[in-house]
Amino acid sequence: MNSSSFAARIKKNKRKVLILSSFLTGLAFVGITAGISFTFKYNGKHPREEVQQFVKKVKYVAFNPEKISENSDFLAIKSLLFDGNTLKNTIKLDEYLIPYYFSEDSKQLVKFAQQNQKTSSPVFDFVDLNFDDLNQNFIIKFRARQQITDQKIAYSDFVLSPVSFYDSRKFLKADFNFALQKITEKIEEAVSNFNTIVSNFSEENSDLAKNHLYRALDFAAKINSSENSSQVEQNLAQIFPNFTDLISSIRNSKENLIPDKNTRIFDINFAKDAATNQFVSVQNNIATMFLQANLTQSALDQLGDNFEINGNKIININLESKDKKSIFLDVNEFFANLKLKPLVYNTEEKETKLVISKQNPFDFFAKIKSQSNPFLKNSTIKDLINPLLAENLSLDFGNFNKSIPSDKQGIDFIFDTPNTKLVNDNGKYVVELPYKIVLYESFFDNNSNEIINQKDLILRIEGFGLPINSNIASSAFGNFLIPGTQKGIIYQQEPLFDNKSANLSQFISTFGEPVFAKVPLNKEELDNLILKRDYKALADKLSLPSSYNYNFDNFEAKVRSWSGQTLIPNLDDISRFKNLQTTTSINSSNSSQNLAVSSLVSNTFFQNPSDVATFFADYIQQEPNKIAKTFFELAKYFGLLDQNRSSLQIFDDDLQEDIFKKAEKINLNNKNIQVLSFNNHFEDVFNQGFFSTLFLPQSIKTKIGDLKDKSASEVLAALKDQEIFKESKTNFDLNQIKENYKQSVKFSTLADVLLAFYLKSAQLSNFLAWEKIDSNLNYEIVFQKGNEISKQTLDQEIKKITEQPKPEQQSQEQPEQPEQPEQSQQTQPSQLSEQPAEAPQNLTNSKNYEYLTLNFYYNIGDERTNKFSLQTPVRKILINLSTEKIDPKVSNQEKLNSLADSIPSALLNFEVNDETFTKISQLQTSTTGQQNDQTSQTSSLETHLTNLKNTKDYFSKSLDSAQLKFDIFPSFENSIKTDTINFLLTVSILDSSKNSQAQNSGQNNTNQAEVLALRSLKISVKKSNNSQSSTQNQQTS
Hints:
alpha+beta; 8-stranded mixed sheet; 6-stranded mixed sheet
């Protein structure tokens, strides 16, 4: 539109300079909507929406004062821009025009940022400029444009707007606001490009706080300690020099200069937040600093006297990256990535280094587990692992490795050795060692030891060699994968303390342990069982009391513990055990040397001493306070403490070192007991019962001294030399153990009981031999035939063993022996049977016997795959076998066993009235372990227990053609029971033919007749509540 088009409709002599006074006269939209330059596919948001909103933001369009002087009038501007009625070709409208808008936050007038045609943000297209001579103003036609894709553009509607003549009172303030906006954006952009403070240190002056990890909170604390803005900059220069450099450059940047004046628009300084009165505030790990921008005097002079000052501007600077993360250390993210560095294994044997492929995984696992004691330092575990590595164990800090020294305080990794596992990973053994990383406040150079964070991880140690037992190289059995040296030693110790003569040891090593039966297996039957691989049935037959009576459980119980299949009671279960208190004889000629014993008895748990050792193996790895609380409860069950005694939370704190000092203050109510046992294992204390029997020798008590002054570490250090089975050497012999047992002190405080437990742990290497390998293992026994031995060879070997040396030779070869405890005589290796002992040479007299070395071992494997990968060491036993096709002894024994196994409960368990019970109790003797010296009480008992005749008839009617003998002896349990009397009923089948011969010769038929088979059963007599007989559950033995 030209000037003449307006002249006819309006008058002349209007103002030369038109300044728009209100927003209402500002803009007018053209009624015709511009089309879209591409075919649009709807996606939920119209592509023109953004450009339409963008163009609506324009409130004013003014001439650029840098192109057109503020004092220019209408005619001067027209002459500059137009050639007649046409806009000059050299004029680029976007250089001459400036659009303005009101900011949403402060409602201040601000000019639009300079257009960048290469961005995808909306830009303005100034299409046409016209003038109005009548009103002496200019009209601009423009629109917004946005590049959607390379070939697709969205356009807004066209807009017509009057062009304002530049008025510094109006637009200079907007320009200053724009300058402040650009300054703010420049600071934010620079800050977002800063790296994490730590990496910044590595590039900066070495005098700075190098290698210090700053959290946002640490940064805020340091800066907020400043008294003024100047001190803020000084502290900031020490921590974050890049930031101070940035602020300095911003102050002198072109954005902060008045055009044509070269003086600053704003004075920029750090300020405190009005809400918190702090220079730095922190929220969600984002630190915010505050810059105060004050207009300089030069800027105020430019605005003029009429400018209304609305206060100073506060710029909030969030110290965050472009992805809105803090530029300071994010503790949670930092800690989440922490772990031990990947293990790099040593490959060459050196003075202090080992090659892992040459290490036995079980031995290494055992060494790790032996450090389970919570008082031992973490460095001990590192000392075991580091020799295997090319680089010692250290933490992996990821991107911070170069900035954090290896000896940085305030962070540590702690191994959880009690929960270490040995895992079979596709045939390769891996030690999985749990560890905990703990981060303390002191990591950030504070004095506090407060734990900030901690997490649990697992270190996998792998690459071990195949564990082959080179000591038992035999192609017949393949490779023996012994599960650790300590396990192998204890497994082989049967008997535990070996005082055999050299001849006997040589015999056993060559032929096996003699295990002879009066009613041996038929050779053909044994061959069939081995051929069918029915090893369990063979083991059952060999363990029958009426046969070989071999105790496989002493071996199997250890295998159960390795496989995680031992039935372990909890404290609630143990509370229901029966407590039996008795004495055990140390010297039959001196009753004053008897020891007072308290035994907890259960028909379900702890049947073998190794079951108890497995229970101990679990508890020795617990926190000392938990162990102390457990033994406080056990002391009540053993009858040492009253049942209503309470520990009063004395062991509930974290002072683990003080358990002996605390326990010393707990006096026992019963101070007479010297030995603690389960299921009367004390009777075998010098063999397998040693594992489960607790006693405290006077020598140890004296060595430790007053426990109230001892820390736990001091006590354990003093017990370290008590280890009995170390590697392949036995440090204590049977005589020493016996002497210690005789010196057992009476438990007087709970500390004595704890000391006895820790002594047992020290003696048995922290019960490593019973440490579980895995919970998902099963096992099976395997038998293999060895060499057959002729009767002549066996007789010669037995003669060597039984031959007594001459008196002078005996005195030279045998050391003086201390007096033997009575029960130790029952546990000699060649007398494993519960039957009356018989000289080995008597068992070789039969012409129908052959002799065989029988080897057995256990396979251990994965229960889930049923694949066996471990083998225990081989044990040898020497057995006698019957060669008769039909052995009457075997036949009779099988018949007798069948009847005993199916006998009704009513024939073994009786209830009688008080009077009868009293009479019966007078018949039994309370002496334990002297059955051989007692006389059968069958007739006497039958007088008072008439129903016993029914029990005898049960066998007589079923075996009507056999000659039977019934013997009854009191049970050892009667010495420690008051409500029940137990008897052992022995049923024997006699050889009637030899009995007839004895009768013809006038001999006593009972004593002379040969026993073809026998079986013992337990008879229980209880007091009846209503004086009526009743029955209980069947019990056999």
